[in-house]
Structure formats: structure tokens, C-alpha cells
Amino acid sequence: MTKYIASLFCLCIIIACSSKDNKASLVGKWHTAEWYIKNDNSPIPQKMTFEFDSTGRYIVDYGSEKEEGAYRLQYNT
User: Fold this and answer.
1) Exposure letters 37-64 (e unless 16+ CB within 10 A, then b)
2) N or C: which end of the chain has fewer CB within 10 A?
């Protein structure tokens, strides 16, 4: 469930980038301020950190475990 929510959060971050030259604005370390379970809107107390690098790799730190993978930005033209 946590990985599903994290993936959804990553997707939201990626979609929020609107400019083709905006990849640099995603690069860096991002900390969650608050997040919720989608179906019942319950808050999740666990904090997470997302880190995106300029080569298309990401790391998500859930506190108790980490996830690594690749990302790409897709733009509507």
C-alpha cells in the first residue's frame, strides 16, 4: 500500500512539471509535509523523502525501507 501511494505521489510531482526545460526543478531532495490514504482520506504519520537526480534515477526513503528506480518526464505537446 505504501509503495502504491509513493508511486502516486511521484506521478503527481512529475505531472506538475509543465516546461520541457523544467527537469532541473525536479532534481533534488523532497520531503513530504503531509499525505493521506486516497480512499478514506486518513492521514499517514510516516514521513518520506524523495530524491531525484539529473540522470533519471530516484530514491524514496520510507523511513523503514528504501526504494530505487528510474523516472522520466513526459510532456504533452
Assistant:
1) eeeeeeeeeeebebbbeeeeebebbeee
2) C
Count of domains for the chain: 1
Each residue's pLDDT tens digit, 20-57:
555 568 899 999 888 888 888 888 888 899 999 999 99
In a domain, 76, yes or no: no
Residue 62 lies in a domain: yes
75 in a domain, yes or no?
A: no
Supply the DSSP symbol for 36: B
Cell numbers for 55, please give them: 540522470
